[in-house]
Amino acid sequence: MKKTSFCFFIFSFFLFFSCLSFSDQDFKNYCKNYYAEHQECPEDICLLACRSGHYRDCFFECIPKECYMIDVEHCPLVYCQILKGCEKQNVCYQKIDEKQFDCGGLAYAGQDLKCCPGLVKRCGIEFFDGSCDIEGKFSSQSVPICLPCGDGVCHQFENRCNCPEDCGQFERKDIPREENKNNTGIDLN
Prior knowledge:
Radius of gyration: 23 Å
Order of helices and strands: HHEEEEEEEEH
Oligomer: single chain
Shape: globular
Structural class: alpha+beta
Helix content: 10-25%
Largest sheet: 2 strands, antiparallel
Number of strands: 8
Distance between the termini: 82 Å
Strand content: 15-25%
């Protein structure tokens, strides 16, 4: 009797956890199938988006959110991973294949490897209006990336927010209206 109960317990345990986990492909179809069955989109890991047409005749589809848009408590670990974000708190982020590298190269966002020599981990996004967001919460820039800060050149992925020693302080200048035209003569203001 004890052996039968134990076997049933083990079987139930594996059955329960196999139902909770799903493959990468299953995750991609999860939102679509859930929406078809329940006529609602599960907001924890999915979003309802216009996939074709214009707003009036839009075909709405329930699709998976990008990993960085998912709260860490709902992070699907088959599809995403949990990393330390720029705020020093856990965030949901896309999986990164780190097995093929010895160190983190330019823009590497993983955390299992140290940055390659000459690179440092930094956070920070610069917006078009010149403002900075150092935390990058719920964005693709929510984790530190490896950058060549300190070499005197403002490289790709560097900006005045994440690498001020290379990119300097941003000074916003207003362009006079008569000079603010493209080569077709159309006013850009």
